[in-house]
Amino acid sequence: MKKKAFTLIELLVVIAIIALLMGILVPTLSKVKDKAKRIHCQSNVNTLSKGWTMYIDDNDSKLPGAMINTQDQAWVQSPPSNATLEQKIQTIRDGSLFPYVGNAVEVYRCPADRRWKDPSQEAYRSFSIANGANGETTWPAAPRNHITAKKYADIQNPAMKYIFLEDSDPRGTNVGSWQMYFNPAGYIDPVAMWHGEQTTLGFADGHSEIHKWNDPIFIEWCELSMYEPQRFNFNLEVPDDEMTDLNYLARGFPCKSHLN
């Protein structure tokens, strides 16, 4: 018996159904993949935050150094000029925090941060520590704006004070710590928004969370540092009607005290 073949119309209908299903499934799968990366990133920051508290417990409540290029016991070391990707990874292994995070370099990177595959940047580390948590004291912004915490007791309300931030330094790696201005408040460094307009933060009590940003000028500036680093300029002044994100970062900035 002669088998009946598909007609052209039937084939077109099948193709249309497949295309419709793909149109439904692909965005859904993409969202699932993005969510998995957010969960993975938050887990990494949680590990770093808990490792940070474990280091403090073992070191008479002293904080590890946040300023990587000038301090002993810095949480990671400073890479040499024109460092290779492997040299940048080695600075993680040489940091004071490494034994407290299971000797695992991958926890220092957000899985959504693909700069390590970009030959122009080769940035492996995705996170920085806020300067107020035992960071730089000699740079003009630090003594003018705040007194850095040296011990855990210097940080009041640790559950409200972030230590780790996703950092999109356009140089590929933040060569110091994450900085901002006070009195008046203002931005110096950007944050990374690898999860849409959101950033993973790790707090002084050891927990982590993903924070959603609101102010368009701040979001645009941070995205410029991520995707067009050659056009990025540090320091950002914002209008009075876009202070939501700046106020959040100012309230959560970890330090011993702010200078008036």
Keywords:
8 strands; 33% helix; 5 helices; alpha+beta; two-stranded antiparallel sheet; 260 residues; 4-stranded antiparallel sheet
What does it look like?
By secondary structure, the protein is an alpha+beta fold. The protein has one domain (40-258). The protein is 33% helix and 10% strand. The chain is built from five helices and eight strands, in the order H-H-E-H-E-E-E-E-E-E-H-H-E. Strands 1-3-6-7 form a four-stranded antiparallel sheet, covered by helices on one side. Strands 2-8 form a two-stranded antiparallel sheet.
Q: Count structural domains.
A: 1
Order of helices and strands: HHEHEEEEEEHHE
Mean pLDDT: 88
Radius of gyration: 22 Å
Structure at a glance:
This protein is an alpha+beta fold. The termini are far apart. Helices cover 33% and strands 10% of the residues.
List the helices and strands and how they pair.
Blueprint: H1 8-58, H2 85-93, E1 127-129, H3 141-145, E2 146-147, E3 162-166, E4 180-181, E5 186-187, E6 198-203, E7 208-212, H4 216-227, H5 244-252, E8 257-258
Antiparallel strand pairs: 1-3, 2-8, 3-6, 4-5, 6-7
